[in-house]
Specification:
Number of domains of chain A: 1
Order of helices and strands of chain A: HHHHHHEHHHHHEHHH
Strand content of chain B: 25-35%
CATH topology of chain B: Rossmann fold
Distance between the termini of chain A: 18 Å
Number of strands of chain A: 2
Oligomer: heterodimer
Strand order of the largest sheet of chain A: 1-2
CATH class of chain B: Alpha Beta
Shape of chain B: globular
CATH topology of chain A: ABC transporter involved in vitamin B12 uptake, BtuC
Chain lengths: ~300, ~260
């Protein structure tokens, strides 16, 4: 059982998660494990986790998506701008369709022009952030509580959304023909192509999954917080990529774990709250995140190397 | 006569910019026949194969399958017509296990309403059955392809071709970088495929490997077909001399 577990690339994030929980539990004299704190940790995990799950699909395709932080912020703020004109439900649908469209644009430009996705999505990240400032005038936007915000932004339901999204996309990635073709495309694009996989279509869909889930997470965040500034979601793309990599997803493509990415997001969220609670200055968070990212990646790579070498 | 052949390529011409890769090549394969396609590097072997598998389209010339004209616009079209290519490294994705590799693009699914889910159990059973039939021993049935040897990787591709009932299997330099024992395994694959009535094109520049299994040998040199031998007419040395000097070697002519 343990030997089997040691072969799972999620092992790095599981170990780190246990250590971090134990460490913060002790350092905060138990306060970290209180209901209130755990609630915050999970609330942050839900949003980051959903974004990370989306990004995982792009990473599996051996691509990268830097635009998810901006899509997340854009979706939250567009909802805030539109929900009064339309109904909240309709505004949410418009936002999700916009999000999906951005992913389509990212993917389409990537596969048609062959410009690396790093550049394409860096471009859309900056463009969208610019649009956010233009639309909001740089001001914080707020949203009134409604049935919709209660459903999408409640402490009790949100973890369920995360579990649901994680379940659906675990199935998509590991149990569907699309998932197998996505893994093949990321693992060896030439082989996938010669075996008849429509690699361009597959990659465009991966970008659409990423952007749509970032958009959904943005909606959840605005429903929960009910205010968002123009900087909402900045640097989230890097946290999401970090979460995925910690969870065992290979930046080189061809392998990824939705569950791993989810746990990576929980780990990052715990770090943020835990450091704060243990009285460490907030700037330590980024440093700590950096260290954990490298450590978890080293553990994962060791596991993957073992899997990839004859033994 | 044309219907007796599985595939006939006539006057195939292909240019890449100013470079003429194929200059009016005629080539054919009979039913259940093993044809060795030989020639030095840059002779045009792989271009010919890529045209046959739909990767490239010819500038001129035509392809007949069972006497009927065909034009493959993509590898998928060629595969649907029963033409399957096996490359030494090309056919397998390192990060996937055997079952997933075997069925890339043609997964076995179970339908559930509008959704299609992988039938992983069946994929595993069928793929392992075929790979074993090809004659390969596996140390771990669930290992990632990255851990497999060159011969084992080819067994996946060949098993795949047999499973999907390919009519023509094209082996592109299948024995490069293989150990002596693995070369023997690959040559056994070829005999096994032939036994099932499937045609084979064996592309290589190692004459000794192909000589063992081929019925007929076609020699390409600088974009042209310069010789065609029934194996019984020549020795491996004759073929090597033909490739080396670019003309049919005297010794083999004497034999004719």
């Amino acid at each position: 059982m343990i030997r089997k577990l040691m072969k799972k690339p999620e092992i790095g994030v599981i170990t780190s998660l246990i250590i971090v929980f134990a460490l913060f539990g002790v350092m905060s004299k138990g306060a970290f494990l209180s209901i209130g704190v755990l609630k915050t940790v999970f609330a942050v995990s839900v949003e980051l986790g959903i974004v990370a799950i989306g990004v995982t699909h792009v990473l599996v395709a051996a691509e990268i998506d830097l635009s998810v932080g901006s899509i997340y912020g854009f979706s939250a703020l567009m909802f805030a701008k539109m929900y009064k004109m339309l109904s909240p439900g309709l505004a949410a649908i418009v936002v999700l369709v916009l999000g999906m469209g951005i992913g389509f644009a990212n993917g389409y430009i990537r596969v048609k022009t062959r410009v690396p996705s790093l550049i394409v999505t860096l471009g859309s990240m900056m463009t969208l952030r610019g649009i956010i400032y233009f639309v909001t005038g740089g001001f914080t936007q707020s949203v009134k509580a409604s049935f919709f915000t209660k459903i999408l932004g409640s402490d009790i339901l949100d973890p369920l959304w995360l579990i649901l999204v994680a379940f659906i996309f675990t199935v998509v990635l590991t149990r569907t023909p699309f998932g197998n073709r996505l893994l093949a495309t990321g693992g060896n694009i030439e082989t996938a192509r010669t075996l008849g996989v429509k690699v361009d279509k597959i990659r465009v869909v991966a970008f659409m999954i990423s952007s749509t889930l970032a958009s959904l997470a943005g909606l959840i965040s605005i429903s929960r917080l009910r205010v968002a500034s123009a900087t909402h979601g900045e640097l989230m793309e890097l946290e999401a990529i970090a979460a995925a990599v910690m969870g065992g997803t290979l930046l080189t493509g061809g392998y990824g774990s939705v569950v791993g990415s989810t746990m990576g997001a929980i780990l990052i969220a715990s770090l943020r709250s835990g450091l704060l609670l243990s009285g460490a200055p907030s700037y330590w968070y980024v440093a700590f995140l950096g260290i954990i990212l490298v450590v978890a990646s080293v553990i994962n790579l060791t596991v993957v190397r073992k899997l990839m070498s004859s033994s | 006569m044309e219907k007796e052949k599985l595939i006939i390529m006539k006057g195939i011409r292909k240019k890449f910019g100013a470079v003429v890769a194929l200059d009016g090549v005629d080539f054919d394969v009979g039913h259940g026949e093993v044809v060795g396609l030989v020639g030095d590097n840059g002779a045009g072997k792989s271009t010919l194969v890529k045209i046959l598998t739909g990767v490239y389209q010819p500038d001129e010339g035509e392809i007949l399958l069972d006497g009927k004209k065909v034009a493959f616009e993509s590898p998928t079209e060629a595969r649907n017509a029963g033409i399957e290519a096996v490359h030494q490294y090309g056919g397998v994705v390192d990060t996937l296990d055997i079952a997933r590799n075997f069925f890339i693009g043609r997964e076995i699914v179970r339908k559930w309403g509008p959704f299609k889910f992988l039938d992983l159990k069946k994929m595993r059973e069928e793929s392992l059955k075929m790979v074993k039939k090809v004659g390969i021993q596996l140390r771990s049935e669930d290992a990632l392809a990255a851990t497999l040897s060159g011969g084992q990787r080819q067994a996946i591709s060949i098993g795949r071709a047999m499973y999907f009932k390919a009519r023509l299997v094209i082996l592109d330099e299948p024995t490069n970088h293989l150990s002596i024992k693995e070369v023997d395994t690959v040559l056994d694959f070829v005999r096994e495929i032939k036994k099932q009535g499937t045609s084979v094109i064996f592309v290589t520049h190692n004459i000794y490997h192909v000589y063992d299994v081929a019925d007929r040998l076609v020699v390409l040199d600088r974009a042209k077909k310069i010789a065609e031998f029934m194996k019984t007419e020549v020795t491996p040395e004759d073929v090597i001399d033909t490739i080396r000097y670019g003309t049919v070697s005297r010794k083999s002519l004497r034999k004719e």
